[in-house]
Amino acid sequence: MNIHKNNNTMELLEKLNWRYATKAMNGEKVAQEKIDTIIEAASLAPTSSGLQPFEIIMITNPDVKAKIRAIAWDQSVVTDCSHLLVFAAWDTYTEERINKMFDLTNEVRGFKNQGWEDYRQMLLSSYPQRDAEYNFNHAARQAYIAFSQAIAAAAFEGVDATPMEGFDPAALDEILNLREKGLRSCVMLPLGYRDLENDWLANLKKVRKSKDDLLTIID
Ligand SMILES: Cc1cc2nc3c(=O)[nH]c(=O)nc-3n(C[C@H](O)[C@H](O)[C@H](O)COP(=O)(O)O)c2cc1C
Predict the structure, then answer these.
(1) Do residues 61 and 78 make contact, with C-beta atoms less than 8 angstroms apart?
(2) I want to staple 192 with a disulfide (CB 3.0 to 4.6 A). Which of 23, 25, 185, 199 is the partner?
C-alpha cells in the first residue's frame, strides 16, 4: 500500500497522526506568521459556488477569551491558547453577498463570461428566497471545510489545535456582536502549544474505526 504514497502524502499522514484534539495548552505564543499561514490554508478551502460564506474572527485579547471560556464548558484551552479562531457563517444568503463574490471573480479574472453570469442569476433567483436557517446551515458546512484545512495546516506548522463545538453559540454571537454583522458562530479553534504534563490525552493512542467500517467499495 505504501508504495503508492509519495513523500508528501506520507508527511501529510504523519502530521495528521501527530495532531490531536489538545485538552491543555501552556499559554506559549504562536508566531503570527504561523497563524497567517493557517488562515491562508482556511481561505484556500473549496466552497459551494466559491461564495466563501463565512468569516474568521481571531482573538488574542485575554478578557474576551475569559468571557468565551465561561460559555464554553470552562474548557481551559480557550484561555490558555495563543490565538482563538472563531468560524462564523453568514446568517443567510443575500443578493448583495452573492453579487459581491461574483463581481470579485470578474475583477480578479479581468473578464465577464455569459455562463458565469447565467449562473449568478440562477443563484440570485433561488438562494436569497430560501429559509434563512437552511441557508445558514449550508453556509456553516462551507465554514467546516475551511476549519478542517486550518486544522491540517496547524499540524504542518507544529501548532496544536482543539476543534471545538462545546460552547453556547448564541452567547458567543452576543460576546462578539456577530448577529449585527449578519454572522452566526459555528465552531472554534484554539491554537497554541500542548501542555504535556496536564494533558490527559497527549500520550493516548489515536482511536479510529476500521477501514471496513468506514469504506464501502463498489467495483
Ligand atoms: C466539530 C468538532 C467539535 C469538537 N468539539 C470539541 C470540544 O468542544 N472539546 C474538545 O475537547 N474536543 C472537541 N472535539 C474534538 C473531538 O472530540 C476529537 O477530534 C475526536 O475525539 C478525535 O480525536 P483526535 O482529534 O484527537 O484525533 C471536536 C471535534 C470536532 C470535529
Answers:
(1) no
(2) 25
3 pLDDT band, cuts 50/70/90, is: low
Protein residue with its CA nearest to atom 22 in ligand 1: 21
Q: Give the tens place of pLDDT for each residue, 67-95.
A: 999 999 999 999 999 999 999 999 999 99
Ligand 1 site residues (CB inside 6 A) read: 20-21, 23, 75, 162-166, 187, 206
Domains and CATH numbers, the chain: 7-86+137-214 (3.40.109.10), 94-129 (no CATH)
- Residue 72 CA: nearest ligand 1 atom is 8
Radius of gyration over alpha carbons of the chain, in Å? 20
Residue 167 CA: nearest ligand 1 atom is 8
